[in-house]
Amino acid sequence: MLTIDQAAKLLGMPKATVMRWVRQGKLPTREVEGQTFIPQEDLVRWARKRNIFLHREVLPAGGKRSSKPESLSVIVERGGIFFGVKGRTPTEVLRRSAQLIPLPPEIDKNFIADLLIQREKLASTGIGKGVAIPHPRYPLESLEVPALITTCFLAEPVDFKAIDGKPVFVLFVLLSSTTKLHLHYLSRLSFCLREPEFVTMLSECKKPDDLLRLLKEKEAAMDDA
Fold first, then answer.
1. What are the DSSP calls for 177-188, one per residue?
2. How are beta strands 168-176 and 131-132 bridged, if at all?
3. Is 65 within a domain?
4. Catalytic residue among 55, 135, 182, 184
5. ∠ CA 177-180-186 to the nearest 5 degrees?
6. Are 130 and 181 in a shared domain?
7. What would the pLDDT profile of 84-126 be if each residue is shown by its tens digit?
8. Active site residue 135
9. pTM to 2 decimal places
10. What are the residue ranges in the chain where pLDDT is below 50?
11. How distant is the alpha carbon of residue 18 from its chain centre?
12. Which residue range forms the structural domain that includes residue 46?
């Protein structure tokens, strides 16, 4: 049996958020002598069903997932490319972006939004040049695919408190099943975004094919380097 504090630590979420989920009936709980507890096995099943990460040390033993990295263009295409995403604040655009991620219907996208917003509160994912790479604090172990990136071109630039102070015009929402894959795709994206001309071309993208073609060209250059 887990206390609320323990459950919050395992989920990587603030205690207040977990307590809100308990009040809303979103978490499996059990009352013992007037105190609220969360059965660990119930929490594991609940988290996996909703594609929410729990620290590996508390998960039942099992085989490790082994995935060869796919190309950046493949996981961007898998995640979908959207234009005109509205919102005036990071929280608003993250909530709208989360709803666009192509996930199975049984996964609550509001929980994914909570994970993205919670991570954003820790430190801005705005990496500069008008680009942000939002992602959960931890990998989503039960993600049905190795990784995906949902690209959201914003209707209006939004202040993400980026390191260079420039408002963000595009989000690359990165979901991955392992830390290794997360770091791999973060590195690939960062390599592309290092070049000012790439960012300029990115800002001029008008349709999904424009972005996919740009990424394929850049990846080919990376692989040849």
1. SSHHHHHHHHHH
2. parallel
3. no
4. 135
5. 90
6. yes
7. 999 999 999 999 999 999 987 777 888 899 989 999 999 999 9
8. yes
9. 0.72
10. 56-66
11. 19
12. 4-58
